[in-house]
Amino acid sequence: MQYDGLTKGIAVVFGGLTVVLTAVGLVINPAVLFLALMFGVSTYFMYYHLSGKMAASLYERVERQAAQNTGNARRGGFEAGPREEWEPPRDGRRARRSQATQGGQRRGQGRQRQRRQQAGGRQRRQRVQSSGPSPAEAYKRLGLNPDADQSTIKRAYREKVKEVHPDTDSGSEREFKQVQAAYETLTDD
């Protein structure tokens, strides 16, 4: 996070206030102990956040809920499509460092993708899966040209899913599944 230093500073100040107010509460007036308790709780939550445990806990709850929803999807619900992997940052510096590293990898991947598109664009069109639409049908279903790159395909998929999702007024389950199948046909996953 970009405010880690500020949060650490506030946590230190709150921790100091907790110690001072506890001493004042024990020596002068026990009613001040309540205020010390509030600062102590605030300090704990700041520590919990800075340690990355809060993000990890939240992520685990989301994953458990997603696993339960996936089980419900098999019983007649709908899946929302591909899910991108995410790891909670351990601390702000590591997260920024990994983003910078990924940026360098993405540049290299961009060059590789260009080479693949130049040489392998024909391969993608020739690839036919045993189930699902052909690549030509998939491009047509997403409203794309056959020379569209992966980011364009992903963008078109997200827009189309918003239009045909069964939870919308104009959506239908059949169209939703067709859009998902088209996306799965065209992606390199």
TrEMBL record:
Keywords: Membrane, Transmembrane, Transmembrane helix. This is J domain-containing protein. It holds the Pfam family DnaJ. It comes from the Archaea. Residues 137-189 form the J domain. Residues 108-127 have a biased composition (Basic residues). Residues 68-189 are annotated as: Disordered. The chain crosses the membrane at residues 12-45. It comes from Haloarcula marismortui ATCC 33799. InterPro entries: Diphthamide-biosynth_chaperone (IPR052276), DnaJ_domain (IPR001623), J_dom_sf (IPR036869). PANTHER family: DNAJ DOMAIN (PROKARYOTIC HEAT SHOCK PROTEIN)-RELATED, J DOMAIN-CONTAINING PROTEIN. The keyword Transmembrane helix applies. Residues 81-92, 156-177 have a biased composition (Basic and acidic residues). PROSITE patterns: DNAJ_2.
